[in-house]
Amino acid sequence: MKKIGILFGQENTFPQAFVNRVNEKNVDGIVAEFVNIDKVIQGEYCGYDVIFDRISQDVPFYRGFLKNAAISGTAIINNPFWWSADDKFFNNALALQVGVPVPKTVLLPSNQNPPDTSSNSFRNLAFPLDWEGIFNYIGFPAYFKPFSGGGWKSVYKVTSPEDFFEKYKETEQLVMMLQEEITFDLYFRCYCIGLQDVLIMPYEPRNPHHLRYVVEEKQIDQKLLDTIHDYVLRLNNVLGYDFNTVEFAVRDGIPYAIDFCNPAPDADVHSVGQKNFDWVVEAAANMAIRKAKEHVPGINNMTWGNFVKSFTKNEAVSNGASEKKKSKSGKASVKKAKK
Predict the structure, then answer these.
(1) How many angstroms from the chain centroid is the CA of residue 98?
(2) CB-based contacts of 202, cutoff 8 Å, min separation 6
(3) pLDDT number for residue 313
(4) Do the domain assignments include residue 250?
(5) Mean pLDDT score, 331-338
(6) In which element (H, E) is residue 170 found?
């Protein structure tokens, strides 16, 4: 019997719906349940062929458990090794290599020294930094945000150098990045599941959280939707995320990828809405079942993106877009699955 488990925290609607949908499909030899951990012994099989991770970003113990599970052959959604390694600034650089537009962005050192460091630890860092060059490159207003992490924690809109330096003090030991503001005409949030299924959703990040998916219906140019669909697949195939969201701000007809490092994205029915929720549950269940069927005990069953695979294949990352899996659907559309 192949066993699929879901590891989760405070969310309530998605985990139960996911388990129910997998089991409702009644696939011979496959069952889903909530993960149960009673001990973690190095190198031992954890009892699950597939684990859907929704919480290890907040619980380091779970991240350690998942890496140990992967050693014995469990397929983890999403890959805990890559999830531990990447960050938003690196992802932006990677997006440029696969031809996806992103806002102009710079990385900045923490305002306060990290623990166990002194001024000698930063002898390779110029003091002061080239603030004039940085501000001329980014412009104002701009967004100031952590280079790693999720949600809207410690995100600031800054309107001038004086405003920037005032906010900079508040960030303490966080490593931050300063990013160009994209004044957008349209905004989309897109699920990508299993490196192949894409759901494009109109989204309004300026609304209260529970109303961000409640957006006035507009006629969207098909070419724009197709471009967004293509960019979603490029990004997720080079990153290797099985379950992720990508956000795009559209300025002058160009979709800029704003945020695409969301390996545990919101999937609560009360925020995403029933229609989107049903799509996500169905696509996630199908993906997990595929992984269970493909699972081979005792080997590396992780999903690795084209960026990582390029090191073993000696291929250029910039060609990663050509390796992406193609959708069986010819065109993208809003609120329709691409399979």
Answers:
(1) 16
(2) 186, 187, 188, 213, 215, 217, 218, 220, 334
(3) 62
(4) no
(5) 58
(6) helix 161-170
